[in-house]
Amino acid sequence: MSSGHGCSQTISKSSSQAITCRAAVCWGAEELLKIEEVEVEPPRSSEVRVKILFASVCHTDILRWKGRPLAFFPRVLGHEGVGIVESIGEGVTNLKEGDLVIPTFIGECQECRNCLSGKTNICENYPLHRHGLMPDLSSRMHVRGQRLYHMFTCATWSEYTVVNVNYVTKIDPRVPLPHASLISCGFSTGFGATWKETKIERGSTVAVFGLGGVGLGVIIGARMRGASKIIGIDLNESKKEKGEFFGMTDFIKSGQSHQFISQEIKEMTKGVGVDYSFECTGVEPLINEALESTAVGTGVTISIGISEKGIAPINLVALLSGSRTLKGSVFGGIKPQTDLPTIIEKCINKEIELDALVSHEVQLEDINQAFELLKQPDCLKIVIQVNKSLSC
Fold this sequence. Notes:
- By secondary structure, this protein is an alpha/beta fold.
- The protein has 11 helices and 18 strands.
- The protein has helices spanning 59-65, 113-117, 177-183, 186-197, 213-224, 239-246, 261-268, 284-292, 316-321, 336-348, 367-373, and strands spanning 19-26, 34-40, 47-56, 75-76, 80-88, 100-103, 141-143, 146-147, 160-164, 168-170, 205-209, 229-234, 250-253, 276-279, 300-303, 325-328, 358-363, 381-385.
- The strands form 3 sheets. Strands 3, 5, 6, 9, 10, 17 and 18 form a 7-stranded mixed sheet that branches. The protein has a 6-stranded parallel sheet with strand order 13-12-11-14-15-16, sandwiched between helices. Strands 4-1-2-7-8 form a 5-stranded antiparallel sheet, with no helix packed on it.
- The model is unreliable at 8-14 (pLDDT under 50).
């Protein structure tokens, strides 16, 4: 997949008027998306309006499309993306028209107790919003006079979207644009979990449950941090080749053996178990397999995937009697303002090659094809070209 897209020029002067543009609207759970003409209001105080260039598809978008766990319709999905600041609202001083930005579903004020703690990326002032509206509980998008919900803090499956400035990160324009879309959620979640949540040590052993975009991000991060054994687990054997390309050393095809996956992992690690496991699927039974695959006393499991039900039973015996650690993770522990520039720089310097993660590219008007492509065994990440004009 080519990654040669780039910005070519400065956009025109900002507008204080509403914009009519195309967006992929979901009118109900599991319904085909419809390309509609929607109205996007101008940005209000502390907001920016962004022309979306590229977006991508995340597992969480699919869950919301299915109406799980919260169903708000009509809705414009998409939270991975990259675009250009088209206009700014009152009080915005850290961004200007023409800046290249990515939306983030959490913010970073750098002032609250959590931001200053060095222990978490969950900002108290700009947390994760699940209500599908702006922080003031209003919407900036409408279709035929009806309010549109979006995905977390933005709606990237639209040619234009309005975002609170605290949920936008300015990025270096040298990064390939499709790559920037992946960085705004999926890849960074996996990569960050090896760096910010666990700080994998050289020589560590790692198990990765699920080899989608997040799981492959874990593999890349684990390899870069010097893990000696990286075991990938997936139902799809075709993921083995891609996992090995990014640094996986061993592969388990789940469901192929009569043994529990955790037992197979222990046999691969001389009966000890791995130092770190990462559950990236949200498949409920796998959280316990991931937990039980780690070493007694020192093993750490990071839970990244979200199940359709939103809940999963935990084997407290394995957790407590084994003195293991189980930790939940949002965005891989990445702080948008502090940490994303490091990832961007690694992409620019070719330390991280994200081109191999992009298996398909579709146009916005063909968005429903993406849902079919996800069923194909070779599908990893789907990039959506939202605007045909990439001028910035």
